[in-house]
Amino acid sequence: MAGVSPTPLLKDELDIVIPTIRNLDFLEMWRPFFQPYHLIIVQDGDPSKTIKVPEGFDYELYNRNDINRILGPKASCISFKDSACRCFGYMVSKKKYIYTIDDDCFVAKDPSGKDINALEQHIKNILSPATPYFFNTLYDPYRDGTDFVRGYPFSLREGVPTAVSHGLWLNIPDYDAPTQLVKPRERNTRYVDAVMTIPKGTLFPMCGMNLAFNRELIGPAMYFGLMGDGQPIGRYDDMWAGWCTKVICDHLGLGIKTGLPYIWHSKASNPFVNLKKEYKGIYWQEEIIPFFQAVSLPKECTTVQQCYTELAKQVKAKLANVDPYFTKLADAMVTWIEAWDELNPSGEAPAKTSNVKAK
Amino acid sequence: MRKPPTLLSLTIDIALLNLSHISDLSFLPDHVLLELFLRTLRAGKLTEKILKLFVATGKDEILSLISELNIQLILTPVLPTINIRDDEVDIVIGALHLDLTSFMEDWRAVFSRFHLIIVQDPDLKGDLKIPGGFSFDVYTKSDIESVVGSSSSSVVFSGYSCRYFGYLVSHKKYIISIDDDCTPAKDDKGELIDAVAQHITNLMTPATPFFFNTLYDPFRKGTDFVRGYPFSLRSGVQCGLSCGLWLNLADYDAPTQALKPGQRNSRFVDAVLTVPARAMLPVSGINIGFDRELVGPAMVPAFRLAKEGKFRWETVEDIWSGMCVKVICDHLGYGVKSGLPYVWRNERGNAVESLKKEWEGVKLMEEVVPFFQSMRLSQGAVTAEDCVIEMAAAVKERLEPLDPVFARASEAMVEWVKLWKVVTSRLSNFAA
């Protein structure tokens, strides 16, 4: 097992989805890494504003008018005035992989001072298997310089396909509003040189700032919910998508990795504004988490769409009494799947491909 | 054009500056009080005295905000400086080599403040060489026999399992155990790692097994729970086991090391994390710490390969006891952490030679892991001892038909619990 083969660029197989309301100046810093790729820009907010895209990038841009035109009445499932609208980009993409990043995220440096090519690391994560059934104490065993430890069963060493690669952030950490209020000066300066698979049956808080996924394997589950204008809650879009995605990945035998790569998160949002958006979510998540922990999907659900539709049914049945919002959300989840299937007709997400026994 | 500040905000600015001189806030109108409270938080000025001031107003909005934000008067400090009481820790060393001089010298700076229990492998003939300046007790074959009885017991304390005798006779709360072929490692800044202090920190700070925190251990300095982490789960649970890692010679099995003879672990991963509930892991005994009061009886010396040897590649006893502990921690609501500290593991042995001798352990894992993953304990099992007895019965029922090693394991687990009860009561009578 000598030399390390270079990471493929996948430039014709990967779209970069960026939600924005102001400008895309941050792309200048990413140019050396992003320029080969096609960008899908989802413009939130006022559609009459023109978003300037730096020269030399190949992109398509969608504003609210485009979303309404393309989806018609189904556009109601796409959030307005919230970065959750980015999931529209996932829906219209035709590529196998998606990388999504926020417009206040920049290139970080590793401890040696070298610029981190976040996209390359995500690709490495996604192209190597995940190991959700048994925790490897040396973390991702497929990374150079490491392996499975003593005691790790050989039958589990093939791993399962990786559906999602969840990256982290240096500088402004992704804290909720109460934590931001209490620790306004805390910065994440610790570079943890690890990628690891989140074990089956364990939920996690997924952040959409620096996220890559295999659209063919899990795309339809990446619905970022109803947030922003006219909705009682905000800043729970990626959380919601993450919990749905994790439950479905566990059911279908797919893996989710977290850890490297880091990006540099530059902007701290206003904690008072955040508190207003998150306020209900802080209480609701106490009901939502036990719901997701207890969810069980029938084995007849073998595609992502089937799983997601079933999940929507269960959300409606079990969370409606928490707040009528969840009935709306469950309906929107169904609308999302209908819209996804309309825009991606032959592209039903493939049934689970792994041969690993369902645990 | 920016709006000029309001009179109200100017007033609050001044109030904030002089907060420490104010002794009563109850005269303030509700909305002003609320604004002042939020600004105090934002300025990082909420001390115990000032919190009491706000609480004393008795205003509902303030009180409910305090409880929503989970602001508490910290009565006993939990962080940042962990006060390690030396008399709460035993360092247990299983001696598989006679001359411990260089090992002890290398660890002197870390070990010398604690009491050590050194157990000599009963198969090792001769006298141990231990340098002076340490507080320690040595246990040899004859000591083991006098406690356990010389008639053949199903619990065998030889080879790497000799250290379990040390766990048995200790009466401290925390036990740290490190293989005698390891030395202190250096971190990514070139500083020597105090593995004992890190294990104790891991054991004394809460674990978070019910929800994964993407920034790893939220109780470490400079980090916290991330957005989306349920507030009700933020107090965490007690940590029962701390699994450390190894630089240089990582704990690979023989086939892996034989296939990659030059591979050495040089990656320092600066993280501790809680292994989530119901996720199993291979616990390596090379570098561990545990809370003896919580999980001591669960650290069972039970799984002995027929041809178990004196190299880690030739054993899986720690993998077995580690999974017992994990199942029991999951059941009793304790946590298991993995990650820091690192130790430097020195070159020893030949993987290819071990490979020629021994495949048994590798093959048996295929049965062992699914067994532990599906193991469920009854509601009635409320202590570690109860749990071990139930697990022993399950091993006997489900695994015994597969290989005689499992019958021996089941018996050893039952015997161990009996021994544990006898020895601990004897010790507490002695201490009384």
From TrEMBL, chain A:
Superkingdom of the organism of origin: Eukaryota
Catalytic activity of the protein: UDP-beta-L-arabinofuranose = UDP-beta-L-arabinopyranose
Keywords: Cell wall biogenesis/degradation, Glycoprotein, Golgi apparatus, Isomerase
Places the protein is found: Golgi apparatus
EC number: 5.4.99.30
Broad class of the protein's primary localization: Golgi
InterPro entries recorded: Nucleotide-diphossugar_trans, RGP, RGP_fam
Family: Belongs to the RGP family.
Functional summary from the UniProt entry: Probable UDP-L-arabinose mutase involved in the biosynthesis of cell wall non-cellulosic polysaccharides.
Protein name: UDP-arabinopyranose mutase
Gene transcribed to yield this protein: LOC140016785
UniProtKB/TrEMBL annotation, chain B:
GN (gene name): LOC113710215
Keyword Cell wall biogenesis/degradation found: yes
InterPro entries the record matches: RGP_fam
Keyword terms: Cell wall biogenesis/degradation, Golgi apparatus
Protein's name in the database: Probable UDP-arabinopyranose mutase 5 isoform X2
Top-rank taxon, per record: Eukaryota
Major localization class: Golgi
Subcellular location: Golgi apparatus
Source organism of the structure: Coffea arabica (Arabian coffee)
Record carries keyword Cell wall biogenesis/degradation: yes
Family of the protein in this entry: Belongs to the RGP family.
